[in-house]
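A student in our group prepared the protein record below, which I am reviewing. Here is the record exactly as it was handed to me.
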Amino acid sequence: MISNKHKILDAILDQGMLPLFYQDSEKGSVEILRTLYKAGVRVFEYTNRGKSALPNFRKLKEVRDAEMPDLYLGIGTIKTPADAHAFIEAGTDFIVAPIVNPAVAEIANKIGMLWIPGCMTPTEISIAQEHKAMLIKIFPANILGPEFISSIKDLFAGQLFMPTGGVEINSDNLKNWFKSGVCAVGMGSKLISKEVMSKGLYDELLDNTKRALDLIQQSK
């Protein structure tokens, strides 16, 4: 049997994109999740970036269970064991982090959960590998660029990388990333902008998400 960890990893690789956002509004968060799902998203990361993250996540899980049983719902910006435990209890499917915290890795590994740490240097990548990271987030990708991946990928043969930050819904940008050797891209504010959230531009988000998913399939 394929473990959940492998199923979720496969879902990220198939989709080629991990959309992510945080919004204070519970209602807005639910509407964005529904819009992403309608556009074809089947694996998604909510980020732990505000006081409402945990209650909102619980609500998203409720909506997911009722309306979108085939969606994997993960939590991002998990930096401490306390945060990891809180969101595991709330039912997260996987954990994403901006840093490598071995204590968080241990919690995820103990229950067989996918843990995606953020790395900026070869040393951090090496530490992440020691703690069994199957997929590593390159962050902040807008600072490092595709050239960074091209330069280090041979040092870490077989390692899966996903840049987050500065990835755009643009054919050339996406092609450059995939050509450099990434297996998926994280998409935050370039997809789910502050304007989309504050004005509730869900039709625009629907169109942009469909376009991003199409461009990614063409760029792989």
Observations:
- Residues 202-219 form the longest helix (18 residues).
